[in-house]
Specification:
alpha/beta, ribosome binding, repeat, KH_dom-like, single chain, GMP Synthetase, Chain A, domain 3, GTP binding, six-stranded mixed beta sheet, binds guanosine-5'-triphosphate, 445 residues
Length: 445
Amino acid sequence: MARPLVAIVGRPNTGKSTLFNRLVGERRAIVEDLPGTTRDRIYAEASWGGVTFDVVDTGGLLSEQEIERASAAEIAQATQEQAELAIEQADVIVFMVDGQAGVTAGDHEVADLIRRAKRPVLLAVNKAEARNIQDAAVEFYELGLGDPYPISALHGTGVGDLLDAIIAHLPETTEAEREEVPSIAIVGRPNVGKSALLNALLGQSRQIVSSIPGTTRDAVDTEITWAGNRVVLVDTAGIRRPGRIERGIEKYSVLRSTRAVERADVAVLVIDATEPFTAQDQAIAGAIAEAKKGIIVAVNKWDLVEKDHRTMKEFTEKAREAFHFISYAPIVFISALTGQRVNQVMELALAIFAERQRRIPTGELNRVIRDAVYRHPPPTKPNKWLKIYYVTQADVNPPTFVFFVNAPQNVHFSYKRYLENTLRKHYGFTGTPIVMRFRARRGDE
Ligand SMILES: Nc1nc2c(ncn2[C@@H]2O[C@H](COP(=O)(O)OP(=O)(O)OP(=O)(O)O)[C@@H](O)[C@H]2O)c(=O)[nH]1
Ligand SMILES: Nc1nc2c(ncn2[C@@H]2O[C@H](COP(=O)(O)OP(=O)(O)OP(=O)(O)O)[C@@H](O)[C@H]2O)c(=O)[nH]1
């Protein structure tokens, strides 16, 4: 079970590391040792009142020398980047401000960012060991983050109350766990065999657990148990309804697919083996890729195809060409009618879901990327040169990587593809797009 994650964010020098050390105490020993130590985020385990959680100190995106040289705007920028990373991952955010310094403009900006994240936020007003500062903590109400917690990370005052509040705000299920039940959408042009596939799947699943009313009026999802796994099939009502709208039916099916895909983790794109690939098939595939969802291409009605030993290979090549923009998608040849390889569709969907949940430890990730950069360095021309400082996996489902670089505009698409291929070579990520973001940060030279 994934432990809930608590992130400490705030401007440099507010005392984040001091609080972190106090929270994790002896456990500091298991801190993940990351390259470029001064600016890496540090994770460790903490517990209070029998509840265990992970803490991340997002501090130190800038080194001490960098802070000395940095302008207020640069510091604000770095602090916001930390906050964004924290928001993407954390279950509870501790926003730390300096009680002795009072409210700063930068505090307001970060507060705005955090408030929008709709996560529990605790406002810790640090360095409040003196009585007058505890009183002054009320001025921090203006940040709009609720009651301030005056603390002294250095002396421990108030930290118990803050911990009580952290525990009280930890969710029953963590961000990571909420994503655990895979949802799968079956999509495709009219008449390709979506209902037939759905029925084959429902027929083979051990038991139908429930029908879940969806978000749109006529969308109903069905939860089934498949080989011991809970799986949600998205918009089963939409598939079953014979959607005979003669005019504009193709367009309608793309629209319907798009809506289902948005609510799914993995989409099964059904195409008809007896017909040539159409622009419509490609449009739906494009929408799935655009939505950053996992995808399987299921070539249906395979029972109707006259075949010899070359047929599947030739068909695969043609499909690869037609769907070149989703080269990571597995292609499977099925017959919804006879049930041939229908199981495999489900196995693949679950495997792709698992790939989407994978987290690569930061240290390892940086070693892999550093090695790839060494073997095939990015351009060094003046005005075009690119330096990758470090990379972190900011999210799962879809796997999302943030690269901190000198100049994001200098990341050529071919170099981005090289980095993506490197990630896929090491980690697979079969069937799922990978999101890669490039952010600017100042280097150390
Ligand atoms: N008076 C007082 N000083 C504190 C307290 N907590 C931290 N400090 C001091 O504030 C300074 C900054 O503390 P850090 O914990 O390094 O701050 P930080 O937010 O992690 O800083 P970065 O790593 O640069 O982001 C240090 O000199 C601490 O000793 C406190 O409760 N009271
Ligand atoms: N031979 C064969 N026929 C199939 C197969 N799958 C579906 N069909 C037939 O193809 C036709 C269309 O199948 P449906 O399942 O209704 O297709 P759909 O994609 O749900 O169609 P819409 O509701 O129009 O979107 C039906 O006559 C099915 O019996 C298959 O694997 N083999």
